[in-house]
Amino acid sequence: MNWKPGIGDPTFIGWFAVFAYFSTAALCAYVASRLDGRVSASQRKAWWILALVLVVLGINKQLDLQGLLVELGRSFAYRHGIYEKRRVIQMIFLFLLAVVSLAAVFFWFWMNRHNWREQGYMLAGSVFLVTFVLVRAASFHHFQDFLAFPLGGVRLHRVIELFAIAWLGASAMKRLGELR
User: Which of 42, 50, 146, 154 shows the greatest Cβ crowding within 10 Å of its Cβ?
Assistant: First the structure.
């Protein structure tokens, strides 16, 4: 197996993204802690879940855990003699990932169905981030080239990722402003 634990993106922008994930997670946790008993429990849960997801994505940003998953899958395929069918297996995996992600998004919306006014920006940012993560996970080489397009010295996928994180941070700040 070729994967080794280490820093996956030691660039300034990589560390900036990790900082953005963690600081936005802290903001989301702060929002959750500030919501009092008059606010529905689903709103508090949503902010806590979002904080947890952002921490996991921040950790994954530098540890490249999806690389470990790919290596484990490749190793499994070699051992069981199905490596030559890897494209079909990849498509099945991506389909299952999409189904699970869509189910999570529908659950996310259902959980917040009574709180659209308060949670709308956070929900939109969450969907944007989930979509970004899915597109990155499913990237085929030609699409990966598009996402690597340099935009002002920064690759497009990094701009999209940072925009999604910033949207969620702004959503948390907006919600905090409403709580005052």
Answer: 50
